[in-house]
Amino acid sequence: MADTKFASFLYDQGDRIALLKRILTKLGNPDQDFSIIHVCGTNGKGSTSMMIAACLETMDQKVGLFTSPFIGDQTNSIQINGHSISQSQLAGLTGLVKNMMATPQFADDELSDFEALFLIAMLYFSNQSVDYVVLECGLGGELDATNAVTTTQYSIFTEIGLDHVGILGSTIEEITTTKSKIIRPGNTTIIAPQHSDTVNRIIREEARSKGAKVIDVGRFVHVKYQKLNSQLIINYQTTEFAGTFKFGLIADYQLENLRTVLTWLINFYQSAKTPLTIDEILERSLSQINIPGRFETINESPMIIVDGAHNLDGIKSFVDSVNTNFESLKKVIVVGFLKDKDYQDSVDQLSRIKHATFIISEPANDSRKLSGEQLQQTFYNTTHIKYPVIKDPIDAINAAKIQSGSLDLVVGSFYLLNPIRTYIKSLEDNIHDKTS
């Protein structure tokens, strides 16, 4: 196998999409072997993608799912009907792509890790003859590797906010314009409720220029809910459909993602061949759904919840969910960010959590992590409390477990969540092994 190595980041290095299109053509256009539901946004796109994939699987479709950043193992980024690509399959397709990049046709070109993973996913989904692929954008839109695909059936936009400033643009207008370029001629474009009317306007204008149909989630579907233990009872209504089902995600922000999924499903259902009702699809798909790394309970006693909120809008939603669901409980929160994030305003928001104390840690990414001392100082400037710094994520969560006894939360970079989540789940697996 060629010893070609992939770069860590090439997003802004020349015309990446033209290169990826050339490679896809050389590989036989695997992206044209299935229908694509393309999901783009700042927050909620991973959860939305996973819910859509679950609904399609319930309708007896063979569904590929490509998500990032990965939770746990890199193979989890590429799944078919909930099963990750195997390490051997990933290695084989990685070798194929590396060998091709070493040929004279591509000798002067270079791929990033994410671009290579995207190409591998397209090959894998084609080889496995999937019916649909739910394709989550990386950090961008127009220049994102996933935008190299030829056609899409849906472009779905979750909430768009200020993130990756300087890469995608410096204003909400510039960032939205970049993301809107995923829209394909004649497809169906779905827009989640937005904080800014500017976002809606820019996406609508791009869709109109491409002859794409636009559905505004905020106007299309209305949702009410009531809590029942660890689930929500959802009542939804559109002009043509109404129904009730159980929903397994309690974080407040998942209700907005759910509205987007409902809008997509009701539109898709009208041409789908399935004996199931919409309510049956929703109940079977979403009543027990678990979204890794998104307000996910990874341990019951003490309760440990991890959430990959790493930008300001995500942090605000996390804070609201904690205060809504666990207002009166004392809690210890392990927190760590990458240094290119808006951590000052995020700390201001986190200080709104009631009955909380913090342990400051560092994400497992040496080149991008925000130092514990810097985050500690930021917390001190806001709260006048000097919270402890425990740099190793595993040591930090163990200290939290001793300190709280009832509720621990982990929030911030996925590079912080991943080692903690893997560690806690390995402890759980060891317990199961000893008792079975």
Automatic annotation (TrEMBL):
<dbReference type="InterPro" id="IPR036565">
    <property type="entry name" value="Mur-like_cat_sf"/>
</dbReference>
<keyword id="KW-0479">Metal-binding</keyword>
<dbReference type="GO" id="GO:0004326">
    <property type="term" value="F:tetrahydrofolylpolyglutamate synthase activity"/>
</dbReference>
<protein>
    <recommendedName>
        <fullName>tetrahydrofolate synthase</fullName>
        <ecNumber>6.3.2.17</ecNumber>
    </recommendedName>
</protein>
<dbReference type="InterPro" id="IPR036615">
    <property type="entry name" value="Mur_ligase_C_dom_sf"/>
</dbReference>
<dbReference type="InterPro" id="IPR001645">
    <property type="entry name" value="Folylpolyglutamate_synth"/>
</dbReference>
<dbReference type="Pfam" id="PF08245">
    <property type="entry name" value="Mur_ligase_M"/>
</dbReference>
<keyword id="KW-0460">Magnesium</keyword>
<dbReference type="Pfam" id="PF02875">
    <property type="entry name" value="Mur_ligase_C"/>
</dbReference>
<dbReference type="GO" id="GO:0046872">
    <property type="term" value="F:metal ion binding"/>
</dbReference>
<comment type="similarity">
    <text>Belongs to the folylpolyglutamate synthase family.</text>
</comment>
<keyword id="KW-0067">ATP-binding</keyword>
<dbReference type="GO" id="GO:0008841">
    <property type="term" value="F:dihydrofolate synthase activity"/>
</dbReference>
<keyword id="KW-0547">Nucleotide-binding</keyword>
<feature type="domain" description="Mur ligase C-terminal">
    <location>
        <begin position="293"/>
        <end position="413"/>
    </location>
</feature>
<dbReference type="GO" id="GO:0005737">
    <property type="term" value="C:cytoplasm"/>
</dbReference>
<feature type="domain" description="Mur ligase central">
    <location>
        <begin position="39"/>
        <end position="259"/>
    </location>
</feature>
<dbReference type="GO" id="GO:0005524">
    <property type="term" value="F:ATP binding"/>
</dbReference>
<keyword id="KW-0436">Ligase</keyword>
<dbReference type="InterPro" id="IPR013221">
    <property type="entry name" value="Mur_ligase_cen"/>
</dbReference>
<dbReference type="InterPro" id="IPR004101">
    <property type="entry name" value="Mur_ligase_C"/>
</dbReference>
